[in-house]
């Protein structure tokens, strides 16, 4: 049995990994920790919210792909070490693209028995506007998805 655990360095992802490890260690299952590289784009400065890209001026700061990959590798390494410490065989996979698309596709290709993901306590209003990765994974994955609060 092999399970996919989505990690992003957040406390919610850490809880999902810990939950997966506690459930899977007695089963002798393996895990593949995955992280989807998607360079961060931030809007800095100013007090007014950005109404559109044309109005951002020089307030946009984009993370380089190299920085995003380095950040992802650190997250994956830490997760794989946690799994090893818990006695669970783990592999790490760096994915590229939108997590709601690449994680279910990876799980399908790998024949995963399930996906574990952390829940990000987004407000209902915000979640209604942009959705959440956990919700989208539940809707898109062809295998069971465990969302850990």
Protein described:
- With 149 residues, the chain is an alpha/beta fold.
- 42% of the residues lie in helices and 23% in strands.
- It is built from five helices and seven strands.
- Strand 1, helix 1 and strand 2 form a beta-alpha-beta unit.
- Helix 3 packs across helix 5.
- About 5% of the residues have low confidence.
In short:
This protein has helices spanning 11-24, 65-85, 99-110, 124-130, 133-140; strands spanning 2-6, 30-37, 41-43, 60-62, 90-96, 114-118, 145-148.
Average per-residue pLDDT, rounded, comes to: 85
Number of helices, counting only DSSP H or I runs of 4 residues or more? 5
Main beta-sheet annotation: 5 strands, parallel
Overall shape: globular
Protein name: Universal stress protein
Family: Belongs to the universal stress protein A family.
InterPro entries: Rossmann-like_a/b/a_fold, Universal_stress_UspA, UspA
């Amino acid at each position: 049995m092999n399970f996919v655990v989505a990690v992003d360095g957040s406390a919610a992802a850490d809880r999902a990994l810990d939950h997966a490890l506690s459930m899977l260690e007695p089963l002798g299952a393996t895990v593949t920790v995955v992280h989807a590289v998607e360079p961060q784009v931030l809007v800095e400065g100013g007090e007014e919210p950005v109404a559109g890209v044309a109005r951002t001026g020089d307030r946009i700061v984009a993370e380089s792909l190299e920085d995003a990959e380095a950040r992802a590798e650190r997250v994956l390494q830490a997760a794989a070490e946690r799994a090893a410490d818990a006695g669970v065989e783990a592999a790490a996979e760096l994915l590229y693209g939108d997590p709601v698309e690449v994680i279910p596709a990876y799980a399908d290709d790998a024949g995963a028995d399930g996906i574990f993901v952390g829940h990000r306590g987004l407000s209902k209003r915000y979640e209604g506007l942009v959705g959440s990765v956990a919700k989208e994974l539940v809707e898109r994955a062809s295998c069971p998805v465990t969302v850990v609060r």
